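Instructor's aside before we start: the two examples that follow are unrelated to each other. I chose them only because their records fit on one page, so don't look for a connection. First example below.
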Amino acid sequence: LSERLMGPVVAKARERMVIATKFGHTEYESPLAHLGPGGSRTYIRASIDQSLERLQTDFIDLYQHHTPDPRVPIEETLEALNELIEEGKVRHIGHSNYTAEQARRAQSVAKRLGLKTFVSTQNEYNLLARKAENDIIPAAHAMGLGFLPWFPLHNGLFTGKFTKDGGPENSRIMKTRQHLHADAPWDAMDKFAKFCAERRITMLEATIGWLLAVPGMSSVIAGATTVVQVRENADAAVSWSPTTREFTQIANLFPIKP
């Protein structure tokens, strides 16, 4: 759906855009499931053609494997993706939700076969979910992969619109994911809100600014449901950067959970 919605926009200004999309989510039933597993050559070739049609473009800048697929050898996935690069349908390839071990194996296989390898990884990472710092982030940094954190605002919790007493009634958290609100460390959140107020910045600006200051971060994947939110996210990416001391202060408020 997001590709179809973006298609008319892409068609009008393709040269000004870097388009990234994904294929092969193993947790959801795909309309292409009859073609085989999401990491298979047949599935990948059908998937890219449909994405190109929906996006109204003839190439994707970054084509990403959504989730590891244990049903398919990584050799087959990489070979299929390299075919797309050779055909000009894809410029670069990335992966999502890979562990450090899976990322290293993919790089090793690509090197052994003389193939172009993944250039980026997408993984969950935010101030309340920092386990990636012990696994995939250092691995990605060592391999020269760009890191794209998803769920950066913890489903909107770090937009500054929530307190321990609640938040917008029409928000996803309050409607279907109340556990995220109930489980939040509100003492730390309140201290973070005070930190932001002292600097006259929003919690959104501080959160995205902190994430982008983490070594190896390429961008931040922040969802939005309105045009205003899209603009706020974009503005936050360039409006504030923490000093080394401020970066540490924020990190200390939200230590890595065991």
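Example two begins here.
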Amino acid sequence: MAGVLPSCFVVDFNCHKLSISGQHDEVLTEWKKFDHRTAVKLIVLHCPAFEVPTSFSDFILLQEIRVYNTTIDNWGDDVAITNTYHPRLTMLSLVRTKMKDGILPVGLQSIDFPANLYYINFCETNLASVPDDIDAKWHVGSSVYVENSKLTAVPQALIRLQPFFLVLGGNPITEIPPELFEIYGMLYLILAHTNISELPRTISNPSMNTPFIDVRNTAVSYFWSWIDPLVEMMLEVSPMILASGSTYCNDLDRIRNGESATFTAPLQADSSSILMNSSEANWDRLIKAVDCSSPLYDTMFDLLGWDGMYRITV
């Protein structure tokens, strides 16, 4: 029929192929060529100056947004992702992407946040902070990845979200707040490749749902006694601590190889009675409690897969 725009289930918006930068009018012109109301997935690729146009509100069936190798110049409140216009949205991923001044775009902070959006991923970004009130907008129990980015501290707002997955690996974080280990219902806590050297010494009310804790490639060399009940619960299930490349696992390797009798960190009164016991009689428990094997991938997010799908090829 004349005048009917073509339907588009997946929008592959590639600025490199279109020879544009992704500015407002350029995006608006390209998006006029299809029916926004039929799109389920929006993929934005290789845009050096991406600006979200007003027609974004027409993507009423959208379920997933992917942004890759892009600089977001403007994603304003007037074109925010909202439950009003994007009620089916379940996943948002920004990968190898820069945001202005490392600040979360206001378009991702609506108080009318999509009711089904529980998977929020940032990987290889310049995100340096999240707003203090983001827990009043994003949903409790979400899975939040902020991986290989620029966070220097664990945002309290993310702790208040009580995330199911919390991935903070690859950020220049030096200290971990105790409240992080009081989150009920968290399954994975990823702190790999951060600048931490220890976990908090005291946890007032440690969560007893036993999350997997990843401290791979950190300077963590010892554990405190509060972790013992959690380790005990998981001994016959799976190692709850992933620590390959850490100071702790390096010490453990030397102990098991007969090169050392003790961990380098001195024992203290409140040290973990399980994890800091280097006696040969305890080795079996240590092997069950701590996984020192090398990981298959460098990131929790599927960065390798995305690079394979979306990188510019000559």
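The two ends are 38 Å apart (CA to CA).
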